[in-house]
Each structure stands twice: as C-alpha cells, then as structure tokens.
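Researcher: Here's my situation. A collaborator sent me these components and asked whether they could plausibly form a single complex. I don't have experimental data yet, so a predicted model of the whole assembly would be a useful starting point for our discussion.
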Amino acid sequence: MARQTAEERKLEYLKAGANMLTDFSPEQAGSLAVEALANVKVSDVAERAGVTKGAVYHIWPTQEAFRKDLLQRLLQQNHQLAVSGMLELIAAAQQGNGDPTQAMSQLAGFLFDSLKDDPAFFARFNFYVYTGNPEIRAILAAEEDQTYEDFGPYVDLYLKILGRRFRTPFTTRAFLTTTAALLHGLCMRYRISPELTDVSLGAQEEAINMYAFSFTSILNQFSEEIPG
Amino acid sequence: MARISLEQRRESYLDIGCTLLEESYHSAVPNAGLALSQVKLADVADRCGVTKGALYHLWGSQEQYWDDLLSYLVRTNTLFGVTELKAAFTEMYQENGPPPTVREFANAIFDSFSTSQAFAHNVSLFSYLADQEVHDSFVTEFEGSIALQTLILESVISETNRKLVEPHTLVELIVAMSALLQGLCLQRRLGEERTADLVTQGEGRLTLFAAGVEALILSYTEPQDPTANQTVHPTDTPGVLEVALDFGSGEPS
C-alpha cells in the first residue's frame, strides 16, 4: 500500500469523526453525556445562582443528570404554551365566538410566531444528532407522544365542530406528525433565511403566516365532510 | 430568609440553565462544544486503528480537530441539495417504464433523504448557525435546491392544467415542501414507525411526505380554467395529481 500523505490521513480522520456523529454503538449509550447542552455548565449555573457547585451537585449527581432535566424542561415549556393557546381557541369556538373555521389556522399562526425565535424550542434540534442514543431518542419521542395525546382529542373535536372527519387512510396521528414536522422544518428554515419563511399571506386583517396556511391546507386535504 | 425547599432550588437552577442557553443562542461565537463534542480524538484514533499521537501530530488540540471537522461538514453539506434530489430523479428515469407520478416521486425523495448520511450531518451543523460559513453553506445549498425544484414543480403545474393561486409564489411552495421533508426526516430519526406509510402496498404507496406534498400543491394552485373549476374535493386528490412527470430528456438541466 502506498504511504498516505498527511493530507489524506487528515481527511480520513475527519471522515471518521463525521461518521461518529451518526453511528452510535449501544455500548456508548450508557456513558453518553447530554453534550448538546455542553455550553450550559453546572459551574456557570452555580455562579449565576450565587451558590457553590456543591449546592447544585447536591441536587443532581452529575452534570449530565442536570442537562437531561434541562432538556425535559425545555421541551415542556413549549408544550405548555401550545396547549394553553389551543384550549383558549377551542373554548372560543365552542362558545361561538369568532369564526370556528379560522380557529385552527389562528392557533397554527400563533405557534409559529411564538416558536420561531424561541431558543428553548430551537435547542431541541441540537439533540437530533444524538438520536442514535436510545435515551435521548426516548426523551424526544416522549414529547412527540405527549403532543399527540394532548392535541389529538382537540383536533378531532375541532373537525367535528366543522362537520368534518379524517378520511381514509389519514388519521389524527398522521396529521399531527405531518404538521409537527412542517413546524419544525419551517422554524429551522426561519433560522437560516427568515425572509423565506416570514411571509404573510392574504389581506392585511386576515393575513396568516406560512405555517398557518400550510397547516390548514393539510387539514383540509386529510379530512372530508361528514356525509348527511 | 425563609429556607428554600430543595424543589424550589431545583427549579431556579433549571431556570438559570435556560437563561444561559438563551444567551449562548444569541451569542455570535460558535461553540465548538456543541454537537461535535461527542467526537473525541481518542475515539477517532480508536476507530481508525491508530494512536492518539498520530492525530495529535496533525492537530495540536481537540479544539483544532473540532474546527476542522466543522469545516469538513460545511464542505460536504448537501441536504436538500441538488446531489440527492438529482440522484432520486435519475434513478426514477433509469427504467424504461412510465415516468413517475408526483406521489411516486415524493415517495422516492423521502426514502432517499430520510436514510441519507448527509441529512444526519446536516442536522449536526444546526448548532453552528451563528458561524457565518455554516450559515452561508445552508443558504447556497438551498438556493440550488430551489432552482431544481422550480423546474420540477413548473412541469407538475402545467401538466395538471393548474396555475399558482395569487399571490403565492413557487418559492413559498418549495420552502413549505422542503420544511416538511426536513421535519419528517427528523421524526423518522426518532423511530421508523413514526413516519409509517399511510398506504403501504405497491403502486398506491403513500408516504406522509407525499401526502403533505399533494395537499400543499393543491392549496397553492388552482385549475387553469376557472369555468372548469370543480373545487377539488379532497377525495379527488390522487386523480388530480396523477400525471406522469415527463421531462422529455429525462433530467432537468
């Protein structure tokens, strides 16, 4: 074998590093730190709180344990925001306040506007690199499942108010997965090119954002009027 | 001062953690300790079957390796990029059978992206958006993707005798479709069953991505001839878009 140049070796080592980002052996899983939050250090938290590191370590045995709780906290925050927004709109629709056909699109619009600049929401994307790790995957998946459990019944209720239902082969779950994916993707794109995603559509008063428009499109296509 | 309960302290420390994260998010300084920090020189050496010394011979420190790794990922950043889209495209036209429909095409794109290593690398770059070089690579790569998708969508729209609904633009539709693709690929990383096909059997196979694409195209466009305007009834979806995508030469330039 010809001797590799330093440049070739360098490339080989970089490739190996890049692959390690995605290949994750199960043996590593146990020892993995939640590194995506690596810039949040227990020592900084202690300093900011004006306590000793020991005081923080009294609560979490390790830095990783702290970061894992922090991830869960971040995921919950966004979730609560979405749930309370949803409940308000559903209540208004049930009382006949406002146009019920607009309620869902308003909620979608509100979600995109509140989440697109939210660091806590954005932080989750750092973790997808680590989805080879079953533990991280479980935390992220649990949040998605929670969304489904919390929103599923309301989406069904909302469709019922409109006299609609999901049509075969579409399901509430498929709808929520698709629209959650769209929200994630648009928020990511917003971070790169805000001008491409921060588009307001329609006449001034009824203008809705791109997520609201796409959300409503998908809801309409995935559902049908209940006959009779 | 009243004694603060353990639970309260726990909460306040988590609050601070959120604040620190927010500060780092707004900071212009990319933090090499983010997504790449799991890649330790010792492990790289292990993987490559060399000594740590061999790597330290090339990079003075762990941090220098991370810097180079980041640049490497930037150079090879090809998500939604033209490479994969073209690959999916060429593959579909290889056989001498009929050209694919919108649905088949979307299914193939989802399969290609969701399993691509490039997609995973791309996700790891997201922690580094504050880095101008990383940011620019995302912008350039998406511009290429818009150019290619524009050709494909123009053909879809004209073949189906439809036109864009005012005041929507093709770029908007492409942004929405790409966002959907990216989001669904992330969902798939949490478990294949999360993006399970809606219809699995053969010809009628329908992925979530294809279903979303059909919904978006139908909302962003309307029939060319308004008198023939049967408002597209949802159940008509497959029929309306069931055109073969024939680009003549078999490949967009």
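Model: Some features of this prediction you could bring to your collaborator: Chain B has eleven helices and two strands. The CA atoms of residues 8 and 229 of chain B lie 62 Å apart.
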